[in-house]
Amino acid sequence: MFLAGVECWFYFDFLKQVALMMVIYVFLDGGEGQVGLSDLIKATGLTRGGIFETIDPLVRRGLLVERWGRIPWVVARRGISRLLHPSKRLSKRCRA
What we know:
The protein has helices spanning about 5-30, 35-45, 50-60, 90-95; strands at about 35, 65-70, 80-85. By secondary structure, it is of the alpha+beta class. The protein has one domain (about 5-95): Arc Repressor Mutant, subunit A (Orthogonal Bundle).
């Protein structure tokens, strides 16, 4: 039987979070030192709000660590970006 109502939205959000974690992992595994929101927007096609609502629960759970920093190759833009990387706990589990 197909899930209905709130349960269906819960699973959709969960799948979106897993997919975003996979995209972040691919970026970092490919040699990127850090992943910014603009990178995720280009890769997924989600809006900034969609990225924020997907990332915030992952940060609250401790799976992702976010910080504000400068991206060296961005000179003409504002200069400060919200950067993401996996937590040390998650990195240990992925490598084990």
